[in-house]
């Protein structure tokens, strides 16, 4: 019984170690930061809430999808970010952004289902992490 407990205690450490050592890409770092923001309730979704958060100066950074139906959304968020000096990031699709922003159901296998498309999000609070450091480094460049 004691051997089984020792085995179970060391297994999670071995599983997490390779993930920490792997180099993060900018896209993976953004996905992880958005996931952390969802879990810490530090993300706002939707044009109206994002615009309010940026205008108040509460946003750390904003994310907009490239395939927005209305190009004025992108222009508005970009202008607000420029005015308040908030970093601005774009992603490929609204569906991808909706998944990363937590607007989906996760099935028992861990796959996203019923993803709701999202055109823009803003992150207002985050716990410090390696992914956030990587993302801030890429935003400065």
UniProtKB/TrEMBL annotation:
One of its GO terms (cellular component) is ribonucleoprotein complex. Belongs to the eukaryotic ribosomal protein eS12 family. Belongs to the eukaryotic ribosomal protein eL8 family. This is 40S ribosomal protein S12. It comes from Salpingoeca rosetta (strain ATCC 50818 / BSB-021). GO terms for biological process: ribosome biogenesis; translation. Transmembrane segments: none annotated. The keyword Ribonucleoprotein applies. Pfam families: Ribosomal_L7Ae. Residues 29-122 form the Ribosomal protein eL8/eL30/eS12/Gadd45 domain.
């Amino acid at each position: 019984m004691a051997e089984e407990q020792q085995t179970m205690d060391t297994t999670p450490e071995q599983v997490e170690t390779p993930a920490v050592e792997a180099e993060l890409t900018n896209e993976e770092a953004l996905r992880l930061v958005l996931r952390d923001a969802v879990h810490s309730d530090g993300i706002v979704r939707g044009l109206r809430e994002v615009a309010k958060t940026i205008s108040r100066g509460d946003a750390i950074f904003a994310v907009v999808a490239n395939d927005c139906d209305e190009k004025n959304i992108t222009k508005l968020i970009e202008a607000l970010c420029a005015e308040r000096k908030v970093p601005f990031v774009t992603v490929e699709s609204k569906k991808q952004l909706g998944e990363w922003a937590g607007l989906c159901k996760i099935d028992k296998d861990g796959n996203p289902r019923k993803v709701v498309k999202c055109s823009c999000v803003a992150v207002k609070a985050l716990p410090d992490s390696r992914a956030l450091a990587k993302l801030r480094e890429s935003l400065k460049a």
